[in-house]
Design brief:
Number of domains: 2
Largest sheet: 14 strands, antiparallel
Helix content: 10-25%
Number of helices: 3
Structural class: mainly beta
CATH superfamily of the largest domain: monomeric porin ompg
Order of helices and strands: HEEEEEEEEEEEHEEEEEEEEEEHE
Number of strands: 22
Shape: elongated
Radius of gyration: 28 Å
CATH topology of the largest domain: Porin
């Protein structure tokens, strides 16, 4: 009799354990209208729809695989991404560097707590940080002057500051204003107060700007005019151009053309700067190289 009670009790316990285990592994269908990104422990990633998930695995559908089963043990991150980023079956991550062309800004701003580090021509180093969604501030130093002054026992770098404020007017049009301030040791300081207007989105846009030079050496009544644009051709490649019209001898122009390479957190620009005088000595123009790391 006691053996019978023991067997019955053991059978009930095993049934409960089995039921709980099956419940835990039961598959739950996910919202097929949402898009997710799965990053694996080895750094590889999949982007697509989550078809099902349970305590053991996630079942996804991507542009390459109609069904792929990924164990949770191999997943580092599972996060929802913006479905509007899909174009012709490919996922276009957000432009990591839409707030600036080469030197000049667009009217797109960094979001609050976003920031980036930029290195230009190796010796120019700068940071920019979004204070709010509409206001950012940046600054940087020039490495050669910094190194030279340090060898003389001083710290007198060429440095610059770049505050900017911008707001959206509608979905396709934004305006902004800001200042470029630069200080050159033993020479003085100056800056340009400017206004800009950008039409388009973060991938394809054009920006017109005008600014007035004010410095210790004097000021200029005529504005500096800029015309810039970018065109994203694929998730990782785009075209970029920044053109300046400077009030010297009437107006002197500088134009640039190049390629921008994108990563989710980086951007690399390979471009050339040219005008009617430079082209006589270097037909393709002066090489320009920078890279940006977003944080």
């Amino acid at each position: 009799m006691q053996n019978y009670k023991f067997i019955r009790t053991l059978t009930m316990l095993l049934s409960i354990v089995l039921f709980v285990n099956l419940q835990g592994q039961s598959s739950v269908s996910a919202d097929s209208t949402k898009v997710y990104k799965v990053v694996l422990q080895d750094g590889s990633a999949f982007i697509g729809k989550v078809l099902q998930q349970d305590t053991v695995q996630v079942v996804m559908q991507t542009s390459m695989f109609p069904r792929i089963e990924i164990p949770w043990a191999k997943i580092k991150v599972l996060e929802e991404v913006d479905a509007s980023g899909f174009k012709k079956g490919r996922y276009w991550f957000k432009n990591p560097h839409a707030s600036r062309y080469l030197f000049g800004p667009s009217a797109f701003n960094l979001q609050e707590k976003e920031g980036y580090y930029q290195n230009t021509w190796i010796f120019l180093n700068s940071f920019n940080v979004g204070i709010t969604n509409y206001f950012s501030i940046g600054g940087g130093i020039e490495f050669l002057s910094t190194f030279t002054s340090l060898t003389q026992g001083e710290f007198k770098p060429i440095y610059f500051l770049t505050p900017k404020f911008s707001i959206p007017v509608n979905d396709r049009f934004r305006v902004g204003a800001g200042v470029w301030y630069i200080h050159v040791p033993e020479a003085g300081a100056g800056g340009i107060g400017y206004g800009i207007a950008t039409y388009g989105n973060t991938d394809d846009n054009i920006t017109v700007g005008a600014g007035w030079l004010i410095s210790e050496w004097g000021s200029e009544r005529k504005p500096v005019i800029t015309l810039s644009g970018m065109k994203r051709l694929s998730p990782k490649i785009g075209l970029i151009s920044e053109n300046w019209f400077i009030p010297v001898d009437g107006y002197t122009s500088l134009w640039s053309y190049g390629i921008r390479f994108f990563g989710e957190k980086i951007a690399i620009d390979l471009a050339f700067i040219n005008n009617t005088e430079i082209v006589n000595y270097l037909f393709i123009g002066i090489p320009y190289v920078d890279f940006v790391v977003k944080f």
